[in-house]
């Protein structure tokens, strides 16, 4: 199978913490993304929001537009309300030819609250699950009709963070609910990425590849850091710079015939982790891993 390697501008300029790389020009991010070897990128807040302008800007650097984050509140909204909220973003992705939407459930999330320990995240109540599964199934079917698949992003600090919660989500929904498989978030949550990919390989429709620094993770858990404090202190890094086994994590996906994007995504402080240096390191590790697994990198 053939895969494509892309990245996310969060390594250059962080949307959640604007002070991290806030003064880095978009052009620097795009130029260095291509210099590192990547052929696509996900959305950043400095990107043009009109389809033609966005495609033209990325085209200047030989880059494809892959997808973009959407923070849903489907736990507290109706399907119709969520559709109205997401429609501009969905229209942008569809107009740009994106195959998936990065979709996270952010009702009550603590991921952006710097003074709240990530361990104090909200948890979905037992009686909330049936209605949520029904609504997200209907929403995913609507999105599929528009040509953009839902790629559910389990995320630290949200109601669906751990492998057991992903199991419940996917077990209770149709195939139109795909899984965005994120090695870094599963590892931070205390789960084995390889076990998840082995179980759900057929449902994985997008991949975020980020590594984790074991020493920083140990402190983050012991000292009850918030998600943002963990990021600032370097819990995440690019593939090949931490302790995640990417060959084990990605092998089930490769064996299942995955042919989409693998996104190198590692939010770090660019003042501490030079973006181009780390982007090159992440690209090299991902490409070597893909080739070991018999994948062709386009």
Automatic annotation (TrEMBL):
Domain Xylose isomerase-like TIM barrel: 31-288
InterPro entries: IolE/MocC (IPR030823), IolE/XylAMocC-like (IPR050312), Xyl_isomerase-like_sf (IPR036237), Xyl_isomerase-like_TIM-brl (IPR013022)
Superkingdom to which the source organism belongs: Bacteria
Coiled coil (UniProt feature): none
SUPFAM superfamilies: Xylose isomerase-like
NCBIfam families: myo_inos_iolE
Name the record gives this protein: Myo-inosose-2 dehydratase
Organism in which the protein naturally occurs: Skermanella aerolata
Gene name of this polypeptide: iolE
């Amino acid at each position: 199978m053939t895969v494509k390697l892309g990245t996310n501008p969060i390594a250059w300029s962080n949307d959640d913490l604007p002070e991290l790389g806030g003064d880095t020009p978009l052009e620097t991010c795009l130029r260095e993304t291509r210099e590192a070897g990547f052929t696509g990128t996900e959305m950043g807040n400095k990107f043009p929001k009109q389809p033609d302008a966005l495609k033209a800007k990325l085209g200047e650097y030989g880059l494809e537009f892959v997808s973009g984050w959407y923070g849903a509140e489907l736990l507290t909204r109706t399907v119709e309300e969520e559709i109205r909220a997401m429609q501009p973003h969905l229209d942008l992705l569809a107009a740009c030819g994106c195959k998936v939407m990065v979709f996270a459930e952010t009702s009550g999330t603590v991921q952006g609250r710097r003074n709240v320990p990530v361990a104090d995240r909200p948890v979905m109540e037992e009686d909330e699950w049936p209605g949520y599964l029904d609504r997200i199934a209907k929403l995913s079917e609507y999105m599929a009709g528009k040509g953009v698949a839902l790629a559910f992003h389990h995320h630290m600090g949200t109601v669906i963070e751990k492998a057991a919660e992903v199991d419940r989500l996917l077990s209770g929904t149709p195939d139109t609910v795909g899984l965005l498989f994120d090695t870094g978030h599963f590892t931070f949550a205390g789960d084995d990425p390889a076990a998840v990919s082995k179980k759900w390989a057929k449902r994985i429709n997008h991949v975020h590849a980020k590594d984790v620094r074991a020493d920083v993770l140990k402190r983050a858990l012991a000292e009850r850091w918030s998600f943002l404090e963990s990021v600032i202190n370097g819990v995440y890094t690019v593939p090949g710079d931490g302790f995640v086994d990417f060959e084990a994590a990605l092998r089930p996906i490769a064996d299942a015939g995955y042919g989409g994007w693998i996104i190198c995504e590692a939010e770090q402080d660019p003042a501490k982790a030079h973006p181009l240096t780390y982007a090159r390191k992440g690209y090299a590790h991902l490409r070597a891993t893909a080739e070991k697994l018999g994948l062709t990198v386009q």
